[in-house]
Each structure stands twice: as C-alpha cells, then as structure tokens.
Amino acid sequence: MRGVVRRALDGLYLVSAGLAALSLFGIFAVMMAQVFLRQANIQLPGADDFTAYLCVATTFFALAYTFKRGELIRVGLFIDKAGPGSRRWIEMAVLSLAALLVGYIVYWTFLDTLFSLEIEEVAQGSVPFPLWIPKLAIPAGSGILLIAILDEFMIVLRGQKPSYVRAAEDRAARGDFSAEV
Amino acid sequence: MELLHIALLLLVLLCLLLGSGIWIALALAGTGYVAMSLVNPTPGLFLASAYWESTGSWTLAALPMFIWMGEILFRTRLSEELFNGLAPWVRRLPGRLLHVNILACGIFGSVSGSSAATCATVSKIALPELKRRGYDEGVAIGSLATAGTLGILIPPSIIMVVYAVAAEVSIVRIFIAGVIPGAMVMGLFSLYIVGWAILNPSKQPPAEPRMSFVAKLRQSAQLIPCALLIISVMGSMFLGWATATEAAAFGVLGSLFLAAVTRCLTWRSFVDSLAGATRLSCMILFILAGAAFLTKAMALTGIPAALAAAVAAAELGPYVIIAILTVVYLILGTALDGISMIVLTTSVVVPMVQHAGFDLVWFGIFIILLVEIAEISPPLGFNLFVMQTMTGKEQTEIAWAALPFFAMLVVTVVLITVFPAIVTWLPDYMLSR
C-alpha cells in the first residue's frame, strides 16, 4: 500500500514539473513565433500576456519537484551543524511552519482565483484572456508543494533523512554545483 | 519611535526565520505576513496580488530564457574547448596559462550566469592541466576561485535580471553597465598575475614551444561560433534591435543550434537542460514572489520611507552611506546567497539609496561586486567551498590563495565608488543614441 502511495505522489510531482517544463518551453515557442510572424507582418495577438502566464506556470508547477530535490535554497548554516537527534526536531518544526505558510498561500491565492472567476476578470491586452485560468496555476502548484511538504514531514517523522537533504548531499558528493547560483 | 520598534522586530524575525533553515522564499513571505498584519487586517489579499504580479511579467520571462541558454551551453563541449582554445593566445604574457583561468571564467561565466557552476566547471579542466604543466598551485586556485565569480558581473547575468526586476530598472541598461566593470575586474586579475609572475621567476614552468598564428587560430576555431552567439545576443540587445526577453529567446535558439551542430544535442541533454532550467527558474522566481510580498508589506508599514528620511536627515554624505552598506552586505554575504541578498535589500535599501541620490543601475553593479566578494570571503563564501571540494584542500589555504584577487575586487569597488562614470557612462552613451 505504501508503495502505491509513494509512486502516486512521486508521479504527481513529476507530472506537475513536466507541466512547468512545458510552460518554459512554451515561453520560447511563443517568443519565436512572435518574432518570425512579425517578419511576415502578422501580429501574434496576446503573445506578451500569454508569455507572462507561462512564466507563472513555470514557477509554481515546478515547486514540489524542486523542493523534493533540495533545490529550493535555504540557510543551512545552523541546521547542518545540529546533531542528528535535535536536527530531526528542527526539520519537523521547519516543515510544520513551511506547511502553515504554504497553506496560507494556497488559501488566499485560491480565493483570489475564485474572485477573478466570479467577476469574470479578463486581461487588459489585445486578447481578453479570462484571468482565473492562469491564476489557477498559483494555488494548484502551491497545493502540490504543500502535499510534498507534508510528505517530507511524514518521512522525517518516521525517522528517515528528508529527501531534499539526501538529494543535496548526493549532488555535493558528485561535485555537481549546477543547482547553485 | 514606534516605527523603529517595528523595524527591529521584523529584522529579528527575519533573521530567526532565515537562520532556522526554513526555505528562503517562505521566510520572506512569513516576514511579509507579520509586517502586513501590523497595518492591514487581510494580508492574504496583498499576498495573492503580489504573487501574481511578480511572477506573471513579460519582462521577467527573460530570466528562464537566459537560464535555459546557459543550461544548454553548459552541456556542450564548451568548457573543454575553452581551455585549449584560449591557451595559445596567452603564452607570451608573463604568467602564461594562468590568464586562461581568468578569460575562461569570464567567457563561461557570461553564458552560465552562476558563480559556483563557473568555478567548478572551469576548475575541473584547468586545475589538472595547470598542475601537469608545473604551474604554481596557489595562484591557480586563487585565480579560479575568484574569477569564478565573474559569472554574475559579466552579462547576461541571472543575478542582474533579478536585481533589475526587483529594483525596477531596465535589464538592458544594467547589462551594459556591467561590461566595463567586468572587463576592469578581468584586467586587474590579469595585472596581478603579470606582476606576480615577474616578481617570482623561479615559480614559472618551462616555456612552451612557439606556435604559428594559423595553428593558434585552428586550435581556437571551435570557440568562434560560441563567441559569435554571445556577441550577437548581447549586441542585438545593446543596439536596441531586440528586447532582453527576445534576445534571450534567440540565445536559446542559437545555443540549441550550436549544440546540434557540435553533436552535443541529444534528446536526453535537451530534456536535462530544460529540466535544470525549470528548477532553477522556479527557485529564483519563488524567492522573487516572496520578496515582492515583503516589499509591498514594508512599503505599507512606512519603514523604508522613514529610514530614507532618517538617512537624509543625518546628512551622512554618499561615501559614509556606501561604507555602511558595504559592511552590511559583507555581513549578509556570510549567511545568504547573492539572489536572496539582492531581493531582501531592494525592499528596504533601494528607497534609501534612491533618496540619497545614487543611480540605481550603479547601485546594482555595486551590490553585485559585493556579492562576488562575499562568495570568496571565509568562513562561508560558496566559491571557497566549491574549490575545497575540487582540490581537497583546507578552506584557509584557499582563502589565502584568493586573497590577492579578493583585494582586486575591493579595488574595483573603491574605483567605481570614486568614479561612478565607470558604470554609468557606457549605458548612458549606448542608450541615448
């Protein structure tokens, strides 16, 4: 049973990240289409707005997966120095606080999305996109992040090392610093 | 006095949250929430609009594009070719191949935009090669650790895009502003190597055989397409033919083409580059969203305006303000990464700096130089850590090796403070035409 849940959750993060990657590719595709159509004197209507929406989707749909891989940065200064026993408690405290904050983000951005749907808010640009659709990416992506945070909380609760720590250690051991800025 | 208490409370809270090890983007949002709750009953409404407006921006789309361009080129043979391609040209300079470290980091840094990745990638090739040829290890390590930080100063730079978006200045303008200081830092590094080589002739390896001009060209021929790509991306932006976002998208197209021509483009490397770019963009944009909310909250509390007024009333003079900020940033730099340093400060420092009469583009270059310095300052400079892993040496040894180059960065900060035109002249000239 646990195996099924594990696979389902990992699948969810991966599908969501795939959506984010597609959005990033979409930014590129839209920009290119816009530039080449301009050569033929065709304006791609709403392209600028659409690019911005894809940017939102890239950010929020990739959150859970990036979090799991330990690539959302944090200050590890003190937590890395804590002993294994106290570290477990600190991780759980930090994860609980993170869950609260992300929960708050999900709640309010979802209300905002619903509000946009209710008042039928549309983009100001040349194409009146209904704004609730791109806005939905924020609560949806953050919601999946919330699931991932609770997932990690359970992992730490069971006494295991959190995935984000393990992934970061693996990268450091390989000498891979591509995730650092 | 009330406001001062609130400001101190928020500062302590932010430090606690950051220090606790919670993810930086969430620490910013959490502090923003507390700040906002003090002046408004529904912080959530502001949070939703801040998250939407900060990530849903056409200008910001340049960021994932530049990141992806770097990720594609990162997966080509560029890093291997840089060393061999640049080596023939510096053989006659005192210090010889040590200059390759500086040039390779400068070029690689401009495409990758990440200090740690630049440092690790160039070192992986250059260190064994320099050791084999008998170069002094200390200078090799010091130059690589420090020149690795050039990635953020030489455009296109990810950190510059972050600053431009956070401080609401033009991306193109700050890119152009980075050109002269970037060249200056490289020049100073090379100057130190020349001076060191002349003073220590005993530590120089035996000279290498001469090469004809044609042979040199042949050896660096593979670098030419990449150089053309970078020049055309930057050029189209600087000349005003394309916006930053369009130029970045063209950069992606050009990189894909380059990777395909050099047979480095497989389905796997394509997916890897796209996935890497997605994760890095997500990390940065999520921090930007948290910072946008914090900035909004701070503005509503009135703290930045009060601070700016207080600084103006104290009549400290520009050099004193800059000196204080330098110290603050160096302290911040011991714990925070460059992006967090920049987004954090824009909420409080930018109004103050603007009020004191500084050019915001100049200030961006100033902060970026300080971030570079922070990355090689012990005990927590990230590039020191990278070099530690690459060489297996103690951190103190690496920090000592980097010290002369560190001094060159400090010289640059002093120079741009005394002569701000070093930063502002080129963008003013290019963009006024």
Characterization of this structure:
The complex is a heterodimer of chains A (about 180) and B (about 425). With about 180 residues, chain A is mainly α. In chain A, about 70% of the residues lie in helices and about 0% in strands. Chain A has helices at about 1-40, 45-60, 65-70, 85-120, 130-135, 135-155, 165-175. In chain A, helix 1 (about 1-40) runs antiparallel to helix 2, helix 2 (about 45-60) runs parallel beside helix 6 and helix 4 runs antiparallel to helix 6 (about 135-155). Chain A is elongated and about 65 Å long. The mean pLDDT of chain A is about 90. Chain B is mainly α and about 425 residues long. Helices cover about 80% and strands about 0% of the residues of chain B. Chain B has 21 helices and no strands. The mean pLDDT of chain B is about 85. Chains A and B meet through helix 1, helix 2, helix 3 and helix 4 of A and helix 1, helix 2, helix 3, helix 4 and helix 7 of B.
What share of residues of chain B is helical?
over 70%
Number of strands of chain B: 0
Instruction: Let me know the average pLDDT of chain A.
Output: 91
Stretches with pLDDT under 50, minimum 5 residues of chain B: none
Q: Quote the distance from N terminus to C terminus of chain B.
A: 49 Å
How many DSSP H or I helices of chain A?
Answer: 7
Given helix and strand content, the structural type of chain A is: mainly alpha
Instruction: Name the helicity range of chain A.
Output: over 70%
Q: What's the overall geometry of chain A? A: elongated
**N- and C-termini, Cα separation of chain A:** 39 Å
Number of helical segments with 4 or more residues of chain B: 21
Number of strands of chain A: 0
The SS-based structural class of chain B is mainly alpha
Regions of chain A with pLDDT < 50 over 5+ consecutive residues? none
Q: Gyration radius of chain B, to the nearest Å?
A: 22 Å
- Beta fraction of chain B: under 5%
Let me know the average pLDDT of chain B: 87
